[in-house]
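Example 4.3 (complexes with small molecules)
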Amino acid sequence: MPPARGPGPRAPAVRLTPSRTSRVLLVGFMGSGKSAVGRRLARVLEWRFVDMDAEVEAEAGRSVAEIFREEGEARFRELEVVAARRLLELDRVVIASGGGWPCAPGRLEEVPRGTLTIWLRVSPAEAVKRIRSGRTPRPLLEVDDPLRRARELLGERERFYRKAHWKVQTDGRSPGAVAGELGARIDADRTSR
Ligand code: S3P
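Answer. The structure with shikimate-3-phosphate bound is encoded below.
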């Protein structure tokens, strides 16, 4: 008789990483470093780096902030879904997702085969600090109290991000250090199979 498939009723819930990873999808809150880490990880793996927000902007011919302002968040989310579908067809690629894209039922559960999903964790305080020192506007945090908003949003979103195969803490760490750790983990995972 063939061995039973899948975990038994009392087995711990283990998320299986793809046996042959042909793309990496980085998810996490705004300011978690998806683009900065992704760019460096792509270099380590000798793959391409692509950014979901940049893809939306190229397609729409305007910035994320302009789309939010002129057409609203709902329209941005539609464009994001289309961009994600296209990017998730590519191979040998590291994709930085937009912070909100994974936050709908089924998103991370339904990524195409071969996609390794990684949650870059960041605390709300560190996220707000990084965003303040950067140049990319985040319409969702343009409120009187961005830290409070970040705490609320992250509280709502964690249950989606935690569906990723792997997670890594980024607070107090450079993008290069995080990318180096992930590159080594991917390498170890490949050679152990
Ligand atoms: C958003 C995150 C942003 C961008 C948009 C909305 C979100 O991307 O897609 O401002 O809902 O978290 P980053 O996560 O790259 O900042």
